[in-house]
Write a structure and sequence with these properties.
The complex is a heterodimer of chains A (about 260) and B (about 375).
Chain A: E1 6-15, E2 18-28, E3 33-37, H1 44-51, E4 59-64, E5 67-68, H2 74-80, E6 82-85, H3 97-101, E7 108-109, E8 116-117, H4 119-132, H5 149-163, E9 167-171, H6 179-194, E10 198-203, H7 206-212, E11 215-220, E12 223-229, H8 235-242, H9 248-255
Parallel strand pairs in A: 3-10, 3-11, 6-9, 9-10
Antiparallel strand pairs in A: 1-2, 1-4, 4-5, 7-8, 11-12
Chain B: H1 18-23, H2 28-44, H3 52-77, H4 85-102, H5 107-132, H6 136-159, E1 164-165, H7 168-172, H8 178-181, E2 184-185, H9 187-195, E3 212-213, H10 214-232, H11 234-244, H12 246-251, H13 256-282, E4 285-286, H14 293-303, H15 315-331, H16 341-365
Helix pairs in contact in B: 2-15, 3-10, 3-11, 3-13, 3-14, 3-15, 4-5, 4-6, 4-13, 5-6, 5-13, 10-11, 10-15, 14-15
The chains are: A alpha/beta (about 260), B mainly alpha (about 375).
The structure holds adenosine-5'-diphosphate and magnesium ion (MG).
Chain lengths: ~260, ~375
């Protein structure tokens, strides 16, 4: 197996007296989609935030391309080549799509004191990347606040794909999407993975995960319940793990397998 | 199932007219305000108001306020307030006075030192806001009192008991940097225009307006620079992002803390610039300098289209906001109205601007 791009070992994260993560180990290799599954409140978002430099882990170590690394800020993680679609999207409604797309990483032209934001190039790239995701923007200077939830999500994903040089993290990208956009996102994951990027895909929808995932790690109450490889685990088994092995199996039986 | 539009043209999109686009610009209200106020004074005021010397008359106070207003607008777009800028004018004025009068330093040292002191205090304000996470409103309200008090106490110490420090004019007399910070610029041009009959002259042939007061040039230059930075540089994008949602901005890699601290420093330096210009002009400095200017600067920014919640606004808007301010303050003296209508007018403008901005914001975000 190829070496992991990023390896997280025994990550713990405490918020005051709340233990959000209690020793999570996780890694991503180039060209794979590693799914992180878990119920609401399991600690998935907290975990990927330690991966993208938002939170400093209380304990545990991060190894990036074989070297120990500490991210001081989200900027550090981005510069290392990690791009994230946060669950709350990190978008600013009052700003235009282009300005959101390039927020923090604006393309420039000119040099020295004449170095300036290359808005034309930015608009062009932004429109093009959005088109690749199947969305035609009215205008690149349209405010993000005027977009629908799904369109916003798509902008956030397009942005991360564009900047995600080595690792792409998607925190529940499909939960607000319609059928067509969901399949768009899943095929985008497939495309990006084929380019050798390691994808971390968070979901609590087992079907979406099984559709693209290569490996599956289940998180429950801040701890990993183990990692399974594609083909070695079935949807009901994953579902059970996510629920912490509770009576979900019975429940599902009575619902006729619709979950 | 709903069909998605094919690539290319989306039939569900109405073409946006130029007027709709214009309606979304933050400075629209301020430009409308300037037109309204101009019309009002053209009708009610003595025609002397709109001669060249009349225009310089209201542009000078507009410029002094506008320098503060533009900085306040940038800070407000970045999501913060600074209520201490008025007191900062007094404090920086005191520092500047002490440097040139008591210590006898030339402007080439006194000005950078004054700026550095102001920037340091602005930096402290910003760091406190960021470290504590408290609203800047309350942190800088404390600054308002502390700096005003320190100016009073300091002036008494340095002037031997008075709250005024005199002798600035003599101290800076003949300094080579003086023309940048005081008097009229482009006087050659105005003399020439007088000689060819382009501008009004006195009987002896000298132009009635000897030149453009330097603060007006500073005001215009700063408005242009601020607009350029906000709209055409990465830093400008960071300012909007920081004010729009500092958490989202930070998660997207914007150095939010640096942006905020820098904005506080710039605001304090704008106050110091106003202090230097007005202290040289008056020839002395006193503890009441800049009194209430923090509110006027914030009103200027709001009339200019800044949202109190941050993330939206314009430096050009603040530029026009300051001109409205200057026109109303000075303009009333050209009319038969009681000058004390000024405050009523101001309050009315502010209220109108806030309501208007709110509507604009909803249009921009498509909020329903
Ligand atoms: N900043 C925070 N402060 C305190 N508790 C937090 C914070 N962030 C997350 N938590 C807690 O950590 C737990 C895991 O949250 P989260 O990672 O968002 O779960 P998930 O994304 O799996 O739904 C929750 O119990 C949540 O309340
Ligand atoms: Mg989450």
């Amino acid at each position: 197996m190829t070496k992991p791009i990023i390896h997280m070992e025994g990550i713990k994260k405490h918020f005051g007296n709340v233990i959000a993560l209690n020793g999570v180990t996780f890694d991503v290799t180039p060209g794979e989609c590693h799914c992180l599954l878990g119920d609401n409140g399991a600690g998935k978002s907290t975990f990927i935030k330690t991966m993208s430099g938002v939170h400093k882990p209380t304990a545990g170590s991060i190894t990036f391309e074989g070297k120990p690394l500490e991210f001081g800020s989200p900027r550090d993680a981005m510069e290392a080549g990690i791009a994230t679609v946060f669950q709350d999207l990190a978008m600013i409604p009052l700003m235009s799509v282009t300005r959101n797309f390039f927020m923090g990483r604006e393309p420039t032209k000119g040099r020295g004191i004449m170095k300036r934001f290359d808005i034309d190039a930015a608009n062009e790239i932004c429109m093009e990347e959005m088109r690749k995701m199947g969305i035609n923007l009215r205008a690149p200077d349209q405010a993000v606040g005027t977009l629908s939830g799904g369109e916003r999500q798509t902008v956030a994903i397009a942005r991360a794909v564009y900047f995600g040089a080595k690792v792409l993290i998607l925190d529940e990208p499909t939960s607000a999407l319609g059928v067509r956009q969901t399949s768009n996102v899943l095929s985008t994951i497939d495309r990006v993975r084929a380019q050798g990027v390691g994808v971390v895909f968070i979901s609590h929808n087992v079907r979406h995960a099984l559709a693209v995932g290569d490996r599956f790690t289940v998180l429950n109450r801040g701890q990993t319940l183990g990692t399974a490889v594609k083909g070695e685990i079935t949807a009901p088994e994953l579902q059970d793990l996510m629920a912490g092995g509770q009576e979900l199996a019975q429940l599902e039986g009575s619902l006729g397998g619709t979950i | 199932m709903a069909t998605d539009a094919p690539a290319g043209n989306d039939e569900r999109i109405k073409a946006e007219s130029f007027a709709t686009k214009l309606m979304k610009r933050p400075e629209l209200g301020a430009i409308g305000g300037v037109i309204l106020v101009t019309v009002f004074f053209v009708i009610t005021a003595d025609s002397a108001m709109f001669t060249l010397s009349g225009i310089m008359n209201f542009m000078t106070p507009a410029a002094q306020l506008g320098i503060l207003g533009i900085a306040a607008a940038m800070l407000m777009i970045g999501g913060e307030f600074d209520l201490s800028i008025g007191s900062m004018v007094a404090f920086a004025g005191m520092i500047f006075g002490v440097l040139v009068v008591n210590m006898g330093l030339p402007l080439v040292f006194a000005i950078p030192l004054t700026m550095a002191a102001a920037a340091a205090i602005g930096g402290v304000n910003g760091s406190i806001v960021i470290r504590t996470g408290l609203p800047s409103f309350i942190v800088t309200l404390a600054g308002l009192f502390i700096l005003r008090g320190m100016s009073l106490v300091g002036l008494k110490i340095f002037s031997g008991g008075s709250t005024q420090l005199r002798g600035v004019r003599d101290a800076v007399e003949g300094d080579p940097l003086l023309t940048l910070f005081s008097g009229d610029a482009l006087s050659g041009l105005f003399t020439w225009m007088a000689s060819v009959g382009l501008v009004e002259t006195f009987r002896n042939g000298a132009p009635k307006v000897p030149g453009i007061p330097v603060e007006i040039l500073w005001f215009i230059a700063l408005a242009l620079i601020a607009t350029y930075v906000l709209l055409r540089t990465p830093v400008g994008n960071w300012v909007f992002a920081t004010g729009g949602d500092s958490n989202a901005a930070s998660n997207s890699g914007v150095p939010v803390k640096k942006v905020k601290i820098s904005l506080f420093m710039v605001t304090a330096m704008a106050a110091a610039l106003v202090a230097i210009i007005t202290v040289i002009d008056a020839g002395s400095t006193d503890a009441r300098r800049g009194f209430m200017k923090e509110f006027e600067a914030i009103i200027t920014a709001v009339i200019g289209g800044c949202l109190l919640t941050g993330g939206y606004g314009s430096a050009i808007g603040a530029f026009f906001g300051a001109i409205i301010f200057g026109m109303v303050t000075i303009g009333l003296t050209y009319t038969n109205f009681d000058q004390d209508w000024f405050q009523v007018f101001l309050g009315g403008m502010l209220l109108l601007a806030v309501v208007f901005n709110n509507v604009i914001r909803k249009r921009v975000t498509g909020e329903r």
